[in-house]
Amino acid sequence: MATTKAEVVEQKALRIPFRLSMEYEYALGAHAERFFGELRDHGRILGVRCPSCNRVYVPPRPVCGICYAETREWVPVSDEGSLVGCTVVELPFIDPMTGEQRPVPYGFAMVRLDGADTAMYHFLEETDPKRIHVGQRVKAVFRDQRTGSLLDIQHFRTLEEAR
Amino acid sequence: MGRKVGIVATGQTKHGPKRLDVNLRELITEAVTRALEDAGLRMEDVDAVFLGNMEPFEGFMFPELWSVEGWGGYLKPSVKFNTGGTVGTTTTMAAYYYVAAGLYDTVLAVGFEKQSDGHTQAAITTVGDPVWERTMMAGAVGNFAVMASTYIHESGVTPEQAAKVAVKARRNACNNEYAHLQMPNLTVEEVLASQILAHPIRKLDMCPQSDGAVAMVIAEESKARKLAPRPAWIRAVATAHEQQYMGDSPKRLAIMRSQIAASQKVYKAVGITNPRKELDVAEIYEVATYAEMAMYENLGFCERGHGGKLIDEGVTSMNGELPVNPSGGVLSTNPIGATAMIRVAEAALQVMGKAGTRQVPNVRTALATGYGGNAWTDALILASN
């Protein structure tokens, strides 16, 4: 194929590189502090209930977005749940959390824990897309050494299902 | 209700993966000069300029200031918007509000993005919440993969049906001189054989990353009638936001609450009860093949669960009952800050009868949508009357 004008331009174009490394530290906020404290110290997962619609949010949200009502009632939820959406990522890319390439393949999902109405993003242990599906039962695998972050849950492990 | 407002002219750049022949400012000028030429106006005839861009991609603070000569801003009132994927429609709607309110008579709306200058997927990951979502995210692709899995579960759509959406988009794009991806011979088999990015999303299921800009001249009624033989009147606009955290609305693509709300609002405003019959064309912000089918359902083009059937039956193809994205859509061209405004500009071209080889015959009413964040929707109805 003949070289197009655009390709010629691309080969000749001068470009100025610019590397930006900026570090941020985000305050978690009161609700997340409590959630992660409970996770770290007791290996328990808590949600909050909306006083207006009774929806249980896990992760906890300080305000129910639908009702615009502040959530103050904490409720424990199960460490088991179901997948409401899932994928296995194959695309290699730079992880902006670390600046390093994220190892692939990796599984991640929206997990709805039993007792919750909403779902949380988390990693899956399973990396075979044929072995995960919407509705798949999963269980949280807690780390032994916990620091108060979402990664105190290492990932979710799929549970055997009755046939 | 304010004054009647019409889109009278449009201008687009040649969109591409790497427009290294121009910098950001020159890219903007290319679109703006084409829009002014199309309107037969000079910059001095423009009262104000409205700009849309998604800053993290190019790494510029204040890209609107850096590029001011590019869009003719010297001593003019202007304002820049950044609402993510929806920014092109948000900017259009802001221009519309100002003109409808009587504050300005003739304005420019401009959307631009030069993604080859930066890192798209890393920048998109900063859309996610740092505490709850970024750790797992894989740019837009990962989010769409998770959402698509839910939609597949709900509707039973197949990879073959998704591939048909990809083929429709890239073939339609061949009739659009400005489109980035033009693939006249693309087949369903090739889409199904393209690289897996994140299951079930393959490379050809996903929109590209583009460099591009778009500009429109928007005017109040008397000016609009002088500037264009057949203006595209902005008949209704609506915005609806969604809970941002992915899992707070777990079926957010399958049942896209913001899109249902925004589309129902604009349909009601113009008296549309059966959008599939009453719309003549739609330019929607579809991002991924599976999203397009889900949007057919959410926009009321078909019953719930029938998104795949619509593509199978060719209802949304160029010669179907309701052509969707004659331009090739976002699946063919995606300079993010411009993308949603391209939907409006393409819908306007259809209403004005100026869409060339991608013209749908006798367009009287058109829908344009914007999509951003993790499921916000803008919706606009353009009409010939």
How far apart the termini of chain A lie comes to 55 Å
Order of helices and strands of chain B: EHEHEHEHHHHEEEHEHHEHHHHEE
Helix content of chain B: 25-40%
User: How many structural domains can be distinguished in the coordinates of chain A?
Assistant: 1
Main beta-sheet strand count, sense and barrel state of chain B: 9 strands, mixed
Strand content of chain A: 25-35%
Instruction: Quote the distance from N terminus to C terminus of chain B.
Output: 16 Å
Structural class computed from helices and strand pairing of chain A: alpha+beta
Which strand order does the major sheet of chain A show? 8-7-6-9-10
Instruction: Give the helix level of chain A as a range of percent.
Output: 10-25%
Strand-pairing-aware structural class of chain B: alpha/beta
Number of strands of chain A: 10
Q: Describe the biggest sheet of chain A?
A: 5 strands, antiparallel
Rg of chain A is 21 Å
Total helices of chain A: the number is 2
Per DSSP, the total helix count of chain B is 14
Q: Order of strands across the widest beta sheet of chain B?
A: 3-2-4-7-1-8-11-10-9
Strand content of chain B: 15-25%
Shape of chain B: globular
Order of H and E elements of chain A: HHEEEEEEEEEE
Strands, helices and their partners?
The complex is a heterodimer of chains A (163) and B (385).
Chain A (H helix, E strand, L loop, with lengths): L4 H8 L17 H13 L2 E5 L6 E2 L5 E2 L4 E2 L2 E5 L2 E10 L16 E8 L6 E5 L12 E6 L10 E6 L5
Antiparallel strand pairs in A: 1-2, 1-5, 3-4, 6-7, 6-9, 7-8, 9-10
Chain B lengths: L4 E8 L11 H16 L8 E5 L10 H4 L11 E4 L5 H14 L5 E9 L5 H6 L13 H17 L3 H14 L15 H6 L2 E3 L2 E2 L8 E10 H7 L4 E9 L16 H14 L4 H4 L2 E3 L5 H10 L8 H6 L16 H4 L3 H17 L12 E8 L3 E8 L2
Parallel strand pairs in B: 2-3, 2-4, 9-10
Antiparallel strand pairs in B: 1-7, 1-8, 4-7, 5-6, 8-11, 10-11
